[in-house]
Design brief:
- Chain A: Belongs to the V-ATPase e1/e2 subunit family.
- Chain A: InterPro entries: ATPase_V0-cplx_e1/e2_su.
- Chain A: It is found in: Endomembrane system.
- Chain A: It is a multi-pass membrane protein.
- The complex is a heterodimer of chains A (about 80) and B (about 850).
- Chain A has a domain of about 30 residues.
- In chain A, about 60% of the residues lie in helices and about 5% in strands.
- Chain A contains two helices and one strand; from the N terminus they run H-H-E.
- Chain A is mainly α.
- With about 850 residues, chain B is an alpha+beta fold.
- Chain B folds into three domains: about 130 residues, Alpha-Beta Plaits (2-Layer Sandwich); about 150 residues, Alpha-Beta Plaits (2-Layer Sandwich); about 400 residues, no CATH class.
- In chain B, the strands form four sheets. In chain B, strands 1, 2, 9, 10 and 11 form a five-stranded antiparallel sheet that branches. A four-stranded antiparallel sheet of chain B has the order 4-7-3-8. Chain B has a two-stranded antiparallel ribbon with strand order 5-6.
- Classes of the chains: A mainly alpha (about 80), B alpha+beta (about 850).
- Chains A and B meet through helix 2 and strand 1 of A and helix 11, helix 15, strand 13, helix 16 and helix 17 of B.
- Strand 1 of chain A pairs antiparallel with strand 13 of chain B, so a sheet runs across the interface.
Chain lengths: ~80, ~850
């Protein structure tokens, strides 16, 4: 499900959202503000999500801990 | 008016206009423009002092009215009458006519007279009242003395025998006004013994000195009696209560008595006459009492009248104050105008937004029509080469953002508004540092509350809150982004959320014992935690190892994106100002330099993430080392990232290095070539000061030179050092002053700064990692020191303890983690906007547009604060 392609699929979705934001931004003298802010927000959030996802895609280390109780371990 | 509107993207188009207004309606026009608030007038009388200007008399008169109004306010404070404050949002004041103002001035004049006369009579009456009260006390106390004294006349006589007894005249005749010694007591009365007395009242703290002085000057020839007045008497001059004593001094001989009087007066005592005779004294007391009652009645009436007068004033005082303040501002503005006495016309010059010209024109027209004047008011757009002011329109939402940008500087006229990216980047970068869902939700609630109760909270004057309130929309956006980053970091009060199934599972050995070290493995090669950090990492031993690497790389990527984005604005600026050399000499080489090094780094980070190093059994390279070796030993690859890396890196380094001389030399040499070409064509830079103002004589001839100078000015116009200062008026564009050296030095500084900044600014974004690490660690420490302990308790006491601990946890979370950490993250984010982002594109060489506006005036005038609700 959530494999490497997710980043690309996410990018496509985000680009579509940006286009939609460009088209549907409220008209008027603040249109430029709406467009810039919405697209910038979407892009920023996407970058952050993608970076987080990519960093876990091929992890070089795995979680390790030694404070687990026996009852919990299989959860 | 259906043209392109001004947008927040860049500052509004400005025009300089000249207004010709008939003298009669000057005041009305300025009033109307003040309500409109779109025009900034220039001072055309710079050479005149404040006293020489035309409307100084009017301002003086208004100053006087204002003084009178303040006097009323002071009187109201004294009388304890509260002021009815004016709420500008609710009450709107109609523009006053001249006669309104005259009427107000007259009314104030008469009111002042009335109030001050009431005050005077009140004070006089008060003094009378106190005198009467004192007299009453003297009568009462002295009565006691006399009754006692009659018993031991001989003693008194003996004590005063030493005095010269050569005076024959009955002393008391002089001392007292009503001399009547009843025959029955004649031989026992004081007058019969030639003993006189002085009675009066003196402040208690002076009594000792008074006594001593009397004793010394009269060598003991006196008999003094005194008694304390139990109630403190109010001194009418200072309005402070003073404790006083009644005294009666008996002495022998006219001169001595006169001396005593003098001394008493000089010591500030009040002397009252008292009759020796008990019956007369009783009559006197009755009379005093009657008079006192009268005075008190009158006093009460006066006070009532004054109160009524003042409370009537209090109802409209605020409105008058505002009216006078506005009127003064109008005349101050009119003083900036040139007054043509011959034609009885006022001439003004002003900056105003080009797109609002029709509105200004309509206002002018309306005022002229209303006044029924046949002479029209004329508004002319004039051409000038002065730098127009920067006017960035704001609304409720953008105002606070624009303010934090303007705190850094005023954008150059018509360059991209630096606040445009800030609306998102500032709160977003804040959120990267602040990311915790719990804290973000609390912040969101606070921000929403401030927005929901926007109107009532506006009146709060507590300064610290007013500041937070002013930034409520910033707080809202910051909270929203923090919710997102909190979800990404999977942190809620330092705990994690198991929203999706983890990609990891523990490898449990069959003989597992509690506390044994276990590691996890990926459950499914095709499944990764879809949103944010996997919760399995939470609380592990190598949690920090993983998140540090992740957050560090994310900081670099976000920094790169932020700076690249900012750099693109410099391209838009160059396009707008039609300076292609800025594109080819600054933007393009700068961009290539930056991307060749840091764009490559970001690409490598992403590439490294997308390769399955463990699966293919290769060793992952350290990217930091790779970048360092790329500079120190080009061509040396420590651990390969991809085949052919060596050549790519050498190539990129070469490309980057080549950009440096382009950055250094292209622009200055191009400018010199352009300048020389213009010279060769025969253009000369004589008198190239183009029109500054149609009225400044020095510039009269300049318009003709316009074309020539614009050709030459073009070359220098590109300079970064076009000072843009308005008041100097000579802006830029002096072809004859083209200094190659200066341009070169400028460009060298720019190049060095840009190249070094690419490195240092990228490193500077690591603060994103550092602060988010600090925030996360602090909140987990807070949890372990409060809630973790509280949750261990059991039973009733444990439950009560938990409630207490939760209180402490919540309070500390708000104070330390939301407020303190929030402020710190905000400052860091602000720095990233101001330094790292703005330095890439913004010039900040503008001067702010400050229109003449009543709204701004009333908001900013400190003296009006007590009058406005």
């Amino acid at each position: 499900m959530a494999n490497g392609w997710s980043v690309i699929i996410g990018l496509v979705i985000v680009v579509a959202m940006c286009v939609a934001a460009w088209i549907f931004a409220p008209k008027g003298e603040n249109q430029v503000l709406w467009r810039s802010s919405i697209i910038l927000s979407i892009a920023s959030c996407y970058i952050m999500w993608a970076v987080t996802f990519l960093s876990q895609l091929h992890p070089l280390i795995e979680p390790r801990r030694s404070d687990l109780r026996k009852e919990y371990i299989h959860h | 008016m259906a043209t392109v509107r001004d947008t927040p993207f860049r500052s509004a188009d400005m025009s300089m206009v000249q207004l010709y207004i008939s003298n009669e309606i000057g005041r009305e026009v300025v009033n109307a423009l003040g309500e409109l608030g779109l025009v900034q007038f220039r001072d055309l009388n710079g050479d005149l002092t404040a006293f020489q200007r035309v409307f100084t008399q009017d301002i003086r008169r208004l100053d006087n009215v204002e003084r009178q109004l303040r006097y009323f306010h002071a009187q109201m404070d004294k009388a304890g009458i509260s002021l009815r404050k004016l709420d500008l949002d609710v009450d709107s004041l109609a523009a006053p006519t001249t006669s309104d103002i005259d009427e107000l001035a007259e009314r104030c004049q008469s009111l002042e007279k009335r109030v001050s006369s009431l005050n005077d009579s009140y004070e006089t009456l008060k003094r009378r009242e106190i005198e009467l009260v004192e007299w009453r006390w003297v009568l009462r106390e002295a009565g006691g003395f006399f009754d006692r004294a009659h018993g031991n006349v001989d003693e008194i006589r003996a004590s005063t025998d030493g005095a010269p007894a050569d005076d024959d005249a009955p002393l008391l005749n002089d001392v007292e006004h009503q001399v009547t010694a009843p025959e029955a007591q004649a031989e026992r009365s004081f007058s019969g013994m030639n003993i006189g007395f002085v009675s009066g009242v003196i402040a208690r703290d002076r009594v000792a000195a008074f006594e001593r002085i009397l004793w010394r000057t009269l060598r003991g020839n006196l008999y003094m009696n005194q008694a304390e007045i139990p109630e403190a008497l109010v001194d009418p001059a200072t309005n402070e209560p003073v404790a006083k004593n009644v005294f009666v001094i008996f002495a022998h001989g006219r001169e001595i008595l006169a001396k005593i009087r003098k001394i008493s007066e000089s010591m500030g005592a009040d002397v009252y006459s008292v009759d020796e005779n008990a019956d007369l004294r009783r009559d006197q007391l009755h009379e005093v009492n009657a008079r006192l009652t009268d005075v008190q009645n009158v006093l009460r009436n006066t006070e009532h009248t004054l109160q009524a007068e003042l409370s009537q004033i209090s109802r409209s005082l605020s409105a008058w104050m505002v009216l006078v303040a506005k009127e003064k501002a109008v005349y101050d503005t009119l003083n900036l105008f040139l007054y043509d006495r011959a034609r009885r016309t006022l001439i003004a010059e002003a900056w105003c937004p080009t797109h609002d010209l029709p509105r200004i024109r309509a206002t002018l027209h309306e005022v002229t029509a209303r006044a029924g004047l046949s002479v029209p008011s004329i508004i002319n757009v004039i051409r000038t080469n002065k730098t127009p002011p920067t006017y960035l329109k704001t609304n409720k939402f953008t105002e606070a953002f624009q303010t934090i940008v303007n705190a850094y500087g005023t954008a150059t006229y018509q360059e991209v508004n630096p606040a445009i990216p800030v609306f998102v980047t500032f709160p977003f970068l804040f959120a990267v540092m602040f990311g915790d869902l719990g804290h973000a939700l609390i912040m969101l609630c606070a921000a929403l509350a401030m927005i929901y109760w926007e109107k009532p909270l506006k009146k709060v004057t507590f300064e610290l809150f007013a500041m937070v309130y002013y930034g409520r929309y910033i707080a809202l956006v910051m909270a929203l982004f923090s919710i997102f980053t909190g979800l990404i970091y999977n942190d809620i009060f330092s705990k994690s959320m198991t929203l999706f199934p983890s990609a990891w599972e523990w490898v449990v050995p069959p003989d597992f014992r509690s506390g044994q070290s276990v590691t996890a493995r990926l459950r499914d090669p095709n499944y990764r935690y879809p949103f944010g950090l996997d919760w399995r990492w939470h609380g592990t031993e190598n949690d920090l190892l993983f998140t540090n690497s992740y957050k560090m790389k994310m900081s670099i990527i976000l920094g790169w994106a932020h700076m690249t984005y900012s750099l693109c604005f410099s391209y838009i600026n160059a396009r707008h100002f039609k300076r292609p050399i800025d594109i080819w000499g600054n933007f393009v080489p700068g961009m290539i330099f930056f991307q060749a090094i840091f764009g490559y780094l970001v690409l490598c980070i992403i590439y490294k993430w997308s390769v399955d190093w463990l699966g293919t059994g290769r060793q992952p390279p350290g990217l930091l080392n790779m970048l360092i070796y790329m500079f120190l030993q080009p061509g040396f690859i420590d651990v390969p990232l991809y085949p052919g890396q060596k050549y790519v890196q050498i190539g990129l380094l070469l490309i980057a290095v080549v950009q440096v001389p382009i950055l250094l030399f292209l622009k200055p040499f191009y400018l010199r070539w352009e300048h020389n070409r213009a010279r060769a064509k025969g253009y000369r830079g004589i008198g190239e000061h183009a029109t500054v103002s149609a009225l400044d004589d020095e510039d009269e001839d300049a318009t003709r030179n316009g074309e020539a100078s614009s050709m030459l000015a073009h070359g220098v116009d590109h300079e970064e050092f076009d000072d843009g200062g308005d008041e100097g008026g000579h802006g830029h564009g002096h072809g004859s002053e083209f200094e190659f050296g200066e341009v070169m030095i400028h460009q060298v500084i720019h190049t060095i700064e840009f190249c070094l900044n690419c490195v240092s600014h990228t490193a500077s974004y690591l603060r994103l990692w550092a602060l988010s690490l600090a925030h996360q660690q602090l909140s987990s420490v807070l949890w372990s020191m409060t809630m973790a302990i509280g949750l261990k308790g059991t039973g009733i006491s444990g439950a009560i303890f938990l409630v207490v601990v939760f209180g402490a946890f919540f309070f500390l979370s708000c104070i330390i983690l939301i407020i303190m950490e929030g402020v710190s993250a905000m400052l860091h984010s602000l720095r990233l906007a101001w330094v790292e982002s703005f330095s890439k594109f913004a010039e900040f060489a503008g001067w702010p547009f400050a229109p003449f506006s009543f709204k701004v005036l009333l908001e900013e005038k400190e003296e009006l604060k007590p009058y406005l609700g």
